Amino acid sequence: MRSPFYFIVTPLNEKRYNNTIDYEGVNFISNTSQENFKSTNRMGVVVSTPVNYTGDIVKGDILVVHHNVFKIYYDMRGRQKSGRSFLKDNTFLVDETQFYAYNHNGEWRCHSNNCFVKPIDKKEYFIEKPGTEEALVGRMRYNNKELDKLGVHNGALICFEPESEYEFQIDGEKLYRMYTRNITMTL
User: Fold this and answer.
1) What is d(CA 42, CA 67) in angstroms, rounded to the nearest whole number?
2) Is the pLDDT of residue 20 over 80?
3) Whether the Cβ atoms of residue 95 and residue 57 lie closer than 8 Å to each other
4) Domain 113-186, what architecture?
């Protein structure tokens, strides 16, 4: 089965939500709300690529997707529904704007104008600052082709625009997904 325009994916580990924690062999539910986007699974396994797709992504690769792809919501009458990406069973249609990165042969690569930045720990100053992370500063974790051409390579210390952080967990690491235009300078 192939789509002319969409990647066909299933949620990683066949779960639409990452709302359980394994503690000494016992699974505990950490969140029971389906409305909370933070517990939505954001990783999908590619079942098939679009018919005329010529990029690097192949069957079995993992996509980092938008939180609404697998999310369940309730309509005005309280009926449980799946979003527009739902196809059937545990299969979803994902277009090029609904994913940000992909894992091909064990290597993460950013899609289009997306990049991922790792926040850095707060530095000590004379004046106390809130939070545990340095505001608007991070390390480029996964850049894209455009940033690479501009000389912003993985590992570079960068500054970014306020309110551009969109949090993800990739391989157990907290990262912010941003657009190329959100990167303001290298330090």
Assistant:
1) 6
2) no
3) no
4) Roll (2.30)
